[in-house]
Amino acid sequence: MRRVKIYDTTLRDGTQAEYFSLSLADKIRIAEKLSQIGIHYIEGGWPGANPRDRDFFGEIRNYNLDSSLIAAFGSTHHKDRPPESDPVFQELLISQAPVVTIFGKSWNLHVKEVLRTTLERNLEIITHSLRYLKPHVQELFYDAEHFFDGFQADPEYALKTLEAALAGGADCLVLCETNGGALTSKVVEIIKAVQARFPEAPLGIHAHNDGEMGVANSLAAVELGVSQVQGTVNGFGERCGNANLCSIIPGIRLKLGLDCVSDDNLRRMSELSRFVYEIANISPNRYQPYVGRSAFAHKGGVHAAAVKLNPRAYEHIRPELVGNFRNFPVSDLSGKSNIFLLAQTLGLKPADHDAAVQAAAEKIRELTQNRHQLKEADILQTILSKVKELESQGYQFEEADGSLKLLVFASLGKGKDYFRMLSYRIVDQKVGDIEAPVPEATLRVRVGLNEVHTAALGTGPVDALYNALLKALIRFYPRLVEMRLEDYKVRVLPGATGSTAAKVRVFIESRDAHDRWGSVGVSHDIIEASWLALVDSINYKLYKDEHPSLGVAS
Amino acid sequence: MRRVKIYDTTLRDGTQAEYFSLSLADKIRIAEKLSQIGIHYIEGGWPGANPRDRDFFGEIRNYNLDSSLIAAFGSTHHKDRPPESDPVFQELLISQAPVVTIFGKSWNLHVKEVLRTTLERNLEIITHSLRYLKPHVQELFYDAEHFFDGFQADPEYALKTLEAALAGGADCLVLCETNGGALTSKVVEIIKAVQARFPEAPLGIHAHNDGEMGVANSLAAVELGVSQVQGTVNGFGERCGNANLCSIIPGIRLKLGLDCVSDDNLRRMSELSRFVYEIANISPNRYQPYVGRSAFAHKGGVHAAAVKLNPRAYEHIRPELVGNFRNFPVSDLSGKSNIFLLAQTLGLKPADHDAAVQAAAEKIRELTQNRHQLKEADILQTILSKVKELESQGYQFEEADGSLKLLVFASLGKGKDYFRMLSYRIVDQKVGDIEAPVPEATLRVRVGLNEVHTAALGTGPVDALYNALLKALIRFYPRLVEMRLEDYKVRVLPGATGSTAAKVRVFIESRDAHDRWGSVGVSHDIIEASWLALVDSINYKLYKDEHPSLGVAS
């Protein structure tokens, strides 16, 4: 089976994306993860251009990345200085990276206007740069910058630059679609021309996404036989980004059936994507192909029913192959079949639960027209109405499974009040510009027959309130010590008046040793919205611990 | 020039996206916008499946959408009921839409497992459905659902379904890549086979993005000659979304040079994209091709310098063609040339400002090695260091231009304190589950020689604080009445401990009649972070009004 090697440039080209910045420690952690997932080459940076990148190459030598090779990136040597006396160029050797990738100019416009030299001199620079490095490195790649634009401007000259790179000893000619706007048909045509001229030369592809064709262009190149694909995790990169490896790697394995990373590592693709978003502190794109949280979400009732019968009906691959999962979000667009599936996961048994979902959904729709005929149908209808009503107030349950399940238990008459808030008060005071603010919360709650009154400080008002609440509850519910808040998100909903008066939605993700769950609260007051989400989070923890047989835990 | 017509399904297929919901009013507003931009067909919904969609067709008749035709979507008639007695099917006529699009099954798997009928009966249903509608509509389209999967499973049968649609009178056969995972090469191969069989039939393409190839597949189909492209604004849609019209339309106009929308309307593509994000209350994807805020952002110093010389160096199209703009974000990765451009926009005149930027950047780099030689270079260095320091605390200035400019004025020794906070105190109290919380702020500020002490309520604590601040300042600075807070965003930064203790970044967007500006604040305490952003927002308003000659307003 033909093998395609992956060259990741998240740590170099990826960091050219606006809002995407990585510290040295971040870069080391991402390199480790890429290595664990079997990425063949990891480009660490441009040591001559960026001091932080220089540090990376020093530091990464302390790590064992057995399945990956580290690459250093750099330009051809300075037009007026030979390699030996070009300090930026020399950094490539100082980096001690086993792989070096040199980029050079393919486009006559760039040679003349940006590099400001002659076409002939550019060819010499390419050859000399590579020839100088060749004895010092394990593998040597040539990135032909703007190759596709260059070929369209002057095909003969663009091909000559590749000839110059081969003469310098390049192990792979990586054709770069730097400006990212080429059509797939054009990419195919030009790669074929290169292959006609250099039938023996190993080729690579480095595409960008400015025309939203980065993945298609990369996969088209692979179909034509290129052996190296450059890209970034989640497609981070300058402007609209680089070609997205989280889509390219599954494409190579699952669509083209070629060797690339192992099946086990392919199943870590969603993990890799989320890891990099997390480190960069960027909200994941939930619609991202293969790895996004919505990538296998079937919101339409008809689709959800069909997928339950046969996932191939509306899924191009099985989500588990890339470590993702199918989901059936709740929404007012969804048919009853989504609710049916939700009810099943909650241990309910709606009518005809042994029949196919479509038939059951039909049945429930029919039954709910006569609301008193069947209790389970009533319950589903009640849940649907309640969800709709709360959604109209700004709630969203798609990630707040904890809040949603509590709502379902309440509709079943199985809800439980573990505690009741009597009052809370937040005082947050700041004196002058220098002193830190002092947020304090006082809280009165009733737990059974006990009334508890606590006070606590925090780093902010919500933290103070959370601390006061835990202080009040922990002696009654000691297992709350197992709970951790993993994420706290605030979304401002559109308001009619000035924006500080708008409604906010707070979403909290919590976990313990066994489960993760989400909860949600909505209010004009951010403290109240946070309080509501905190209460749901704690109630869900207590409820699921008390009802292990319900199978409510995810 | 060959013409390609655009069929927008944002209002129908788009709303199948998780987290993307539109009210009836939203749908009307989007339809109006699509019409203004010259989109040829606007699919309003599936009137038989969704009561809200039925209302849409009733309401939209009150609007004059002169350049667009409204389309109603529906399935073929029920397998056991003729069109006349199928109530879902009848809704298509009730809708009075001038265009109707019927989808039918092309894939034998779907016919058998989902539709649950025979292959032969499916063909009859397709023909009968279309034939029944034909006399009642202006144009009649056939969506061949799962055509590409169907063709791969059984090419002869898939072609027969198209034949059945032509027999029923379909004006266009729209080939649907419903599961979204087909490679571009496969799409090309199959369209060629359809064209070989039906050389006269007008074809359309409806692609999804599950393999991240929705745009490439659509444009490949256009290159082969299809005359209709279906897609959605921003690529919203079930799972990973539909093919993105905001990339396809520029591709058709600027890459393929075909007739589609006018040049004037093409320049409204960025506006269209943001309008739909805004209505759906979804944060825009800033990396989105063509229309994203980062689509023409040149963060790397080398790229920024080259683009200043010749935009073609790193831009595949001129951003203004799609109503977008070039930007040079500030970041620690950026070379001095970005700061140089920033300084220019602030009315500074760094050394060699008449020379090319590259030369100037070189010069500044050289000068800043000797920090006391040139004052302007010092200032740039000071700004760079301050920005870096604040970024390490969690600040981001890429959208907070107001805060950034204030920082620059301060570095120039041109800052001004319009007021000074002496202390504030927030009290937010809630009693029981039912009563609304009562957030109250008290504030002491000094303005010149006056000390002002105010108190105010608000819908939430930040709103109360803002009200107290305006109350304190308005009699000294009456022009603050012109100011509006347009957006208020909270981002939780990753924290070492439990998440309610994490740092938050607050971003505020403000405007008056002339300008818009952003400001930012970071703290562990959300109230303090909001305070800092509010203060910057007000200071920037006061500063710019006082210094019209500085040209600081955007």
Q: Can you name the CATH architecture of the largest domain in chain A?
A: Alpha-Beta Barrel
* Side-by-side strand order of the widest sheet of chain A: 1-2-3-4-5-6-7-8
What number of domains of chain A? 3
- Which structural category do the helix and sheet elements of chain A fall into? alpha/beta
Largest beta-sheet details of chain A: 8 strands, parallel, barrel
State mean pLDDT of chain A (0 to 100 scale).
Answer: 87
Give the largest interface pair and sizes. Answer: A-B, 132 and 130 residues
Based on Cα principal axes, name the global outline of chain A: elongated
Beta-strand percentage range of chain A: 15-25%
**CATH evolutionary superfamily of the largest domain in chain A:** Aldolase class I
CATH level 1 name of the largest domain in chain A? Alpha Beta
Task: Provide the CATH topology of the largest domain in chain A.
Answer: TIM Barrel
What's the total number of strands of chain A?
14
What does this structure look like?
Chains A, B: Belongs to the alpha-IPM synthase/homocitrate synthase family. Chains A, B: Residues 4-270 form the Pyruvate carboxyltransferase domain. The structure is a homodimer of 554-residue chains. Chain A is an alpha/beta fold. Helices cover 40% and strands 18% of the residues of chain A. Chain A has 3 domains: 5-280, Aldolase class I (TIM Barrel, Alpha-Beta Barrel); 301-392, no CATH class; 420-550, Double Stranded RNA Binding Domain, CATH 3.30.160.270. Chain A has 19 helices and 14 strands. In chain A, strands 1-2-3-4-5-6-7-8 form an 8-stranded parallel beta barrel, surrounded by 9 helices. In chain A, a hairpin with a 6-residue loop joins strand 9 and strand 10. The longest helix of chain A is centred in the C-terminal third of the chain and has 21 residues, at 526-546. Residues 332-337 and 350-374 of chain A have low confidence and may be disordered. Chains A and B meet through helix 4, helix 9, helix 10, helix 13 and strand 9 of A and helix 4, helix 9, helix 10, helix 13 and strand 9 of B. Strand 9 (420-431) of chain A pairs antiparallel with strand 9 (420-431) of chain B.
